[in-house]
Specification:
The protein is α+β, with helices and mostly antiparallel strands and about 350 residues long. The protein contains 13 helices and 14 strands. InterPro entries: AbiEi_2 (IPR019238).
Length: about 350
């Protein structure tokens, strides 16, 4: 007989996820379960300690519920897995086969609502991958704001939250984005609670952490590929002694991460540059075009004045998103350092 103690605080749809996920496992595993949330605190956001009984064996977990899984949340799980007194158990709507591989390699146990699972608590081992959700999954996640132009505006707002209070026409002039696209994106942001009226016809940006999470999730697939102007190769470590003119180009990715943390040894080089200065940048640094090269040069998609960022490296928001797109265990510690030292303070202002 299946039973579940539901005496716990849940927000939105998250409270239903664990129940649905455990029920989804039954056809594949004949799983009988009991879940008893514990009164103690879990040091991880969205987490709660629980005693879980499976196949007549009891285990203690720190259960983390997320309606949707993305690389941002995957990274947060990896960064936090050693901070809890019990093993993490991710509960979510859907874990893709690729994400399941990454979570398994990282030692993150999970169950989802379509029957995928990885639970490794000897003598219990459950591994189910490859189940897919219905067509309705993710249908509402392709909004205008998650497409190319919307992501450009979101980046400007993340870097300069006060821009949310500017008139649409002025915002279009500052960012170089068409007025119609500004209106559409701002309307969607308001509908999702990211922008609210703050009196005197002023608007304010809220839930900046969540907005950044969604932006960082969408950027690698929905905007970054459109920005690539070419791949190149150069002599080893050519970038170390180069002083960039921020008016022409800025470092992104691993090189930017190495420069602001002094920690990472870059294997790839990312540059964001003005399109009309690309020949000058390539010739001046003796770069050779190579489709397989480890140097990527991307079209700088923001106005320098709009994001008020005239440093040699791009904003830490973008550095973090670049590392997230790489998805390499090698960059994990550096990504953590950037989040804790440069980003976390921004989100405390919400």
């Amino acid at each position: 007989m299946n039973s579940m103690n539901t005496e716990r605080s849940c927000k939105g749809n998250v409270g239903m996820i664990l129940d649905r996920a455990l029920c989804a496992l039954q056809p594949a595993t004949s799983l009988e379960f009991r879940v008893e949330p514990l009164p103690e605190a879990c040091p991880i956001e969205h987490g709660y300690p629980a005693r879980v009984t499976m196949f007549e064996h009891e285990f203690l977990f720190c259960v983390i519920e997320h309606e949707h899984l993305n690389k941002f949340r995957e990274l947060q799980l990896l960064l936090n897995k050693d901070k809890t007194p019990y093993p993490l158990l991710l509960v979510t709507t859907y874990v893709t086969a690729e994400a399941a591989e990454r979570l398994q390699e990282g030692g993150i146990q999970f169950i989802d609502t379509v029957g995928n699972a990885f639970v490794n608590q000897p003598p219990v081992l459950i591994l189910v991958k490859g189940n897919r959700p219905g067509k309705q999954y993710g249908a509402n996640r392709t909004a205008h704001m998650y497409k190319g132009v919307g992501l450009k505006l979101m980046y400007a707002l993340l870097c300069r939250p006060e821009l949310a209070g500017r008139p649409y026409r002025e915002l279009a002039e500052i960012t170089g984005i068409a007025l119609g696209s500004v209106k559409n994106t701002m309307t969607e942001l308001a509908a999702k609670g990211y922008i609210v009226e703050a009196g005197m016809q002023k608007k304010r940006l809220l839930k900046r952490k969540e907005l950044f999470e969604r932006w960082a999730e969408a950027y690698p697939d929905n905007l970054k590929p459109k920005l690539v102007m070419g791949r190149f190769r150069g002599v080893d470590n050519w970038w170390r002694d180069i002083r960039l003119d921020p008016g022409i180009a800025q470092w992104g990715g691993e090189v930017a991460a190495a420069k602001i943390t002094g920690y990472l040894k870059p294997e790839t080089v990312t540059l964001y540059a003005n399109k009309d200065r690309l020949p000058e940048l390539v010739i001046g640094n003796r770069l050779q075009k190579d489709p397989q090269g480890n140097i990527e040069i991307l079209n700088r998609f923001w106005d320098m004045e709009a994001v008020a960022d005239k440093r040699e490296t791009v904003h830490p928001f973008l550095i973090y998103a670049d590392l997230l797109a790489i998805g390499d265990e090698r960059t994990l510690e550096t990504t953590r350092m950037i989040y804790e030292n440069y980003l976390e303070g921004c989100f405390r202002q919400d």
